[in-house]
């Protein structure tokens, strides 16, 4: 019902979230994505804290591989987040459409990994990392959706099923940076095989509870007939990421220092 706000001209809708809509917008010949969040709905659901967090976190992040927030303003009923416009959709759609080969999957993985350098410098956990929350702009992959805007992100009261959630979140334990690393592993697995390593969270929890040793067997999911083609390098990587005990899981630091990826980049 309106076509402009604070100098931004609004164009077509790009997508819908749980608490509002995202529009393409222009100002001074530059293109943006503006997320409009329904304030009364946020108040009704008592989620102010998550929305404030989304703004606070996004403001701090300024690297190539995270979606930039340029400004945020509000009127009586709407909070506007003016973001970098990502013109090539989500990683989820990209995977299904392009079926990337292992080399490309690893290169995308490394881009996302780079985004995490600054995220960790600023002491942020994402906790909702999945292909539909990674956007693409001119071939660059960018981490998005920092809201923790859903109760599941609390860790103590997660709801729904997520194929990407670390076991310590599913078990409602205290968690740290390692939860995002687990999700990264699931994302890489999903990119390569286009299926999930752990079919559902209930089953994953059962498996954890039945195990006496803290290491989950990642090879089990790789023995599936569809999942035979995967380099030894990546098998090794999955083995080091899908470790139930987060203290024994590979760290981001170790991942940055590993030479597992060097063969995927030409000199
Ligand atoms: P919620 O905020 O409740 O988690 P959501 O995750 O679906 O909902 P967003 O991911 O923030 O909400 O946005 C909804 C959709 O709008 C996205 O899936 C995407 O298609 C589009 N969109 C959001 N931000 C951008 C952006 N910066 N550039 C291009 N498209 C975007
Ligand atoms: Mg999202
Ligand atoms: Mg969101």
TrEMBL record:
Domain of life per record: Eukaryota
Shown residues within the full chain: 32 to 298 of 884
Subunit structure: Monomer.
The protein's name: Serine/Threonine kinase domain protein
Sites where the protein binds ATP: 44
Domain spans labelled Protein kinase: 8-261
